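User: I'm curious whether this sequence folds into something compact or stays loose and floppy. Could you predict its structure so I can see for myself?
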Amino acid sequence: MRAIRDRLRAAYGRPEPRPHRAPVDELILTVLSQNTNDRNRDVAYARLRERFPRRDGSPRPDWSAVRAAPEDAVEEAIRPGGISRVKARRIQEILRALGDDDLSRLADEPLEQAREELCSLPGVGRKTAACVLLFSFGRPDIPVDTHVFRVGTRLGLFRPGASFEEAHDEILRLADPEDAYEVHVGLIRHGRRICTARNPRCPECPLLSLCPFGRERTR
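Assistant: Here's the prediction. I'll summarize afterward.
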């Protein structure tokens, strides 16, 4: 894992974590990111801000207003993000389950406890919980999205047929906690630029000598 980290760092630079300490925002942003690209997610989030602004002028949506709004109003606001009816319902279910809890306490709770509390919310799984913990607080959890899962499987980090749940456990076992953010970002960058789902560019890959999949394709 350290060799993979070092080669990704040489190829793409070393990303610096910047925890924003806005866990509810991260939670809803991750819901909006499901089954769409970053641009559509960001447009949907911006429209939530416009439709449900905070009175204090903050650039964040007023989550209490989103929670209390008619579902149709939320659905209309986030429509650019795709499957907006399902996401609107899920967002409001999460906000109602949270009530006035801003989740700030997750910064200091034991990691396993914080993860379990997030996963107890409606529709929240390991990836979403890991995004909240990593990006909000810089805690050592690693979200396994489709890029991380694909690259990790090809590298042999995950056994063939492993579930996403198992992959989350395995990558945490393999990676040093202090490398969580760098490993996550590096694997995503690599999955987008080189180790793509279709036609991966194996001859150009800085991980080729470590990758059973790539070595087989380039023999």
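Summary: Residues 155 and 212 are 6 Å apart (CA to CA). The longest helix spans residues 84-98.
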